[in-house]
Write a structure and sequence with these properties.
By secondary structure, this protein is of the alpha+beta class. Helix content is 33%, strand content 35%. The chain contains six helices and six strands, in the order αβββαββααβαα.
């Protein structure tokens, strides 16, 4: 989390939206083998927890249950050029959105894991439009084999640490110029966030 309080938020609905919209993150933990990370789809339960699954053979799998872990979700980010300011005698920076979730982890039963998979599939297939793929299209033996190759976990969030660094430390005119510059150089999502959240 960025140390500048200007870049923080207490808006839980915004955090939930970020998890839902991005739907993917990293799980970090210090293990006896050293620090490890797993990249995984994420699903918020809506009541202060996030669920995820990782491969049974992942370096984190045997350590997560009962441990404390950190989940990070990264939103849009981009380089901010001094060329966009009226006074160019400054330095570049980087605007970004990120959310850190720290908490206790518990392993899910196989029924919970299967429920998580169905929820993830339903959510992401629904966003694609058109004819959706269905789990029933996978042969049962293949589904059971794949289900046995992953492990589901739920992290109870004990600390929410967001960073919404959207040039809030700049004037309104500078923020508008930064948003225009980002939009022109391939970062429209971040530009929109600066316009709507960076005030």
């Amino acid at each position: 989390m960025h140390p500048n309080a200007l870049f923080r938020s207490e808006d839980r609905a915004l955090f939930e939206t970020l998890i839902d919209e991005i739907g993917f993150g990293m799980v970090f933990m210090t293990t006896p083998d050293g620090p490890r990370v797993a990249h995984t789809p994420l699903l918020s339960t809506g009541d202060g927890a996030v669920q995820f699954h990782i491969a049974r053979g992942n370096a984190l799998t045997r350590y997560l249950d009962g441990g404390t872990a950190l989940v990070t979700i990264n939103g849009p980010d981009a380089y901010v050029s001094p060329r966009w300011y009226a006074a160019r005698g400054t330095v570049p920076t980087w605007d970004y959105v990120s959310l850190e979730l720290e908490g206790r982890v518990r392993r899910m039963a196989s029924e919970g894991l299967e429920g998580l998979l169905h929820a993830l599939i339903l959510r992401h297939e629904g966003r694609m439009g058109g004819e959706q793929w269905s789990v029933e299209e996978t042969p049962p033996d293949m589904w059971r084999k794949l289900l046995g190759a992953i492990v589901g976990f739920e992290l109870e969030v004990l600390a929410w640490r967001p960073t919404f660094k959207l040039s809030q430390n700049k004037s309104a005119a500078e923020r508008a110029a930064i948003a225009d510059g980002l939009e022109q150089h391939g970062s429209p999502a971040l530009a929109q966030l600066i316009r709507t959240l960076g005030e």
